[in-house]
Specification:
about 280 residues; 7-stranded mixed β-sheet; two-stranded antiparallel sheet; 9 strands
Length: about 280
């Protein structure tokens, strides 16, 4: 089978399964099975697909037809300016979170704390843009921290330290920037998530098992002790949570609390300054 025929087959399979942008995803899956850049397939249209690659590709198509995300099938996800290894132990980075990175980079910083770092994509992306800075990423999952360390090594990020900690539990020192994409899905909203999210992202990274605001309460109460004067707090939120998170921060003495949109115009980030 040629590349052209394999892509045609893949597009048909994925389209029948209701996958959006089937052409793009078939290309990614074939390239991933072959271990070549997806863009290279354009000049390989008449080449024959090796049998072992064809078998892997067809297995990928079956997985994607069952709602498994491409990033979970291939084990990597493009985010900001890099590519990150992901597995079942970490949240799959999404483009919405790039709004948090952009806001964090809107002002200088030298030391950053990333609460609930997961794959490390936020911290590593920030330090990649600010090579002179350093940072700490915390998580309650040692398996997640292993993923973050792997990603840091792959990115050549030497300024990141990863720490097993329940939020601030083992954090020491002060920072001029704290960032977090905490679990913010309310428990009663979990059933509404797509299967690709609900079945493949770790639940502890999605929901607090309550109203979706538990992490923000902890961060609002404790972050001030770890921020220098004028230090910034930048948090990802669910698109309906802006007013509640801003109120929590103002109650704890933060100033200049405001809500910012993502690329689709939905509320996605809350930022504030310490002290009030």
């Amino acid at each position: 089978m040629t590349v052209r025929a394999a892509l045609k087959q893949g597009i048909a399979v994925l389209s029948d399964a209701g996958v959006d942008d089937a052409a793009r995803e078939a290309r990614l899956l074939l390239a991933g099975a072959w271990g070549v850049p997806a863009g290279r397939l354009t000049i390989m249209q008449d080449e024959s697909v090796p049998p072992d690659v064809q078998r892997i590709y067809e297995a990928h198509l079956r997985e994607r037809s069952g709602d498994k995300p491409v990033s979970r099938i291939l084990g990597r996800r493009a985010f900001w300016k890099g590519e990150f290894f992901v597995n079942a132990d970490v949240l799959d980075p999404r483009p919405d979170t790039e709004a948090l990175v952009a806001e964090a980079l809107s002002a200088p910083f030298s030391r950053v704390l990333d609460l609930g770092t997961g794959s490390g994509c936020i911290l590593i992306s920030l330090l990649g843009e600010r090579p002179a800075a350093s940072g700490v990423g915390t998580d309650i999952s040692e398996a997640a921290l292993d993923v973050a360390r792997r990603n840091a090594r792959a990115a050549g990020c030497t300024g990141a330290e990863f720490l097993l900690s329940d939020w601030f539990e083992r954090v020491e020192g002060q920072f001029d920037l704290i960032v977090s994409n905490p679990p913010y899905i309310a428990m009663d909203e979990m059933a509404e998530l797509s299967r690709g999210v609900r079945d493949h992202d770790p639940h502890h990274a999605l929901t607090d098992g309550a109203d979706g605001l538990s992490a923000y309460r902890v961060i609002a109460q404790q972050a001030g002790a770890y921020l220098i004067e004028g230090g910034r707090l930048v948090l990802e939120i669910g698109w309906t949570q802006g007013a509640e998170v801003v109120a929590l921060l103002r109650e704890m003495g933060f100033a200049k609390a405001r809500v910012l949109p993502d690329l689709e115009g939905r509320d996605r980030v809350v930022t504030a300054v310490w002290p009030g």
